[in-house]
Specification:
This protein has a 5-stranded parallel β-sheet, sandwiched between helices. Helix content is 53%, strand content 15%. The chain is globular, with a radius of gyration of 16 Å. It has a single domain, classed as P-loop containing nucleotide triphosphate hydrolases (Rossmann fold), CATH 3.40.50.300. The longest helix has 18 residues. The termini are close together. By secondary structure, the protein is α/β, with parallel strands linked by helices.
Length: 188
């Protein structure tokens, strides 16, 4: 592969398998993993053992008001400019996140998705965040109303690759391998 940087954006609803895909990309393709939400999670972790998606959404609003709408993008862009290899930005949530990834010359968007009820069942089972034990109705309402969730399906429609995570782990990873084969083939 040449020295051109490849920037991959991962988008997907809560419980779709984005983290699984991201960690597989790191392990199999040695990509550098980045997240827009990382600074938010780190800040909240200073005060709480577990934070919720609602907490992250609120803190993003505060950061955005104080430092500008592109505050998280500036941090990611700085990291990308200082490092080599394939970059994978996990957690696109806003239209401006898509525009940010598209601003790089060699960019690709991978949409990881699954049936809403299946995703809710996964979230209930993992219990990572303080609000993971919510009813299915509350889960649906959050996805319909939270600023950080509403744009995900629309961004997904603009993705270069769609990975449906409704089968086995092997089936998920084969879809990722197919996308990476195409990405790497275009960047020889």
């Amino acid at each position: 592969m040449n020295d051109k940087k490849i920037v991959i954006g991962l988008v997907g609803e809560t419980g779709s398998g984005k983290d699984t895909v991201a960690h597989y990309l790191k392990r199999r393709y040695e990509v550098n993993l980045l997240r827009f939400s990382r600074p938010l999670k780190k800040a909240l972790a200073s005060f709480f053992e577990k934070s919720s998606k609602e907490d992250q959404s609120w803190l993003y609003g505060i950061f955005k008001e104080r430092f500008g709408e592109d505050v998280l993008h500036r941090g990611i862009a700085l990291y990308i400019s200082q490092h080599n290899g394939i970059m994978c930005v996990n957690g696109l949530r806003m239209k401006m996140d898509l525009e940010f990834i598209r601003s790089f010359e060699n960019n690709y968007i991978i949409y990881v998705t699954a049936d809403q009820k299946l995703r809710w069942e996964r979230v209930i089972g993992r219990g990572e965040k303080s609000d993971d034990n919510q009813s299915f109705e509350d889960f649906k309402k959050f996805e319909e109303t939270a600023e950080t969730e509403k744009a995900i399906p629309e961004i997904g429609k603009q993705a270069d690759f769609t990975v449906r995570n409704e089968g086995t782990m092997d089936e998920l990873l084969w879809q990722v391998d197919d996308a990476m084969k195409e990405i790497l083939g275009k960047n020889k």
